[in-house]
């Protein structure tokens, strides 16, 4: 993993659907990074405009949504943000998301997910793979995600981390430019 490590795992989900595939992806993420990863998870819902079309609040949507989605949000500390896809050029959505992520990082004491945490989980996974019968008893189904799936997921997480850092820098640059314009 890149140093110092991710401060956030941003789970992007579309409002109105939480498929088995998405649930499996979240399980893979938790299996790959361990239970401590939930301290660094944040859910971003897209297509928030659909709620307005259906005259529904986010609170009502969450109360009536898939129980597994509510469980996921609970594990993530009920941290989420909603993007309105019809307002793609509205950078306030991104600024608010980054602010919420910054608040989460502050609540975590500025800590980030570390290589040590990852290595501990990796050792545990290796032990579980060496003992398949024991693994089947632990997870109830014996389902073990293959290494290539885990590797792909890790690469996507690292790519996202780089994109998020670049986005944060761009927002900071834009804010600085706006401030300089106001001062002129």
Automatic annotation (TrEMBL):
It holds the Pfam family AIG1. InterPro entries: G_AIG1 (IPR006703), GIMA/IAN/Toc (IPR045058), P-loop_NTPase (IPR027417). One of its GO terms (molecular function) is GTP binding. Keywords: GTP-binding, Nucleotide-binding. Residues 1-122 form the AIG1-type G domain. Belongs to the TRAFAC class TrmE-Era-EngA-EngB-Septin-like GTPase superfamily. AIG1/Toc34/Toc159-like paraseptin GTPase family. IAN subfamily. This is GTPase IMAP family member 7 Immunity-associated nucleotide 7 protein.
């Amino acid at each position: 993993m890149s140093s110092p490590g991710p401060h956030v795992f941003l789970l992007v989900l579309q409002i109105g659907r939480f498929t088995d595939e998405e649930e499996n992806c979240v399980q893979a993420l938790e299996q790959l990074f361990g239970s401590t990863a939930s301290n660094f998870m944040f859910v971003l819902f897209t297509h928030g405009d659909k709620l307005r079309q259906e005259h529904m609040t986010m609170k009502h949507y969450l109360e009536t949504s898939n129980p597994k989605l509510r469980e996921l949000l609970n594990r993530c500390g009920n941290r989420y943000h909603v993007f309105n896809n019809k307002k793609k050029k509205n950078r306030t959505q991104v600024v608010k998301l980054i602010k919420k992520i910054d608040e989460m990082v502050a609540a975590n004491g500025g800590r980030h997910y570390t290589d040590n945490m990852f290595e501990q989980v990796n050792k545990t996974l290796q032990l579980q793979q060496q003992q398949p019968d024991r693994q089947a008893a632990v997870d109830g189904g014996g389902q073990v995600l293959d290494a290539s799936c885990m590797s792909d997921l890790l690469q996507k997480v690292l790519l996202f981390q780089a994109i998020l850092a670049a986005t944060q820098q761009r927002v900071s640059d834009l804010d600085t430019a706006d401030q300089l314009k106001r001062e002129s």
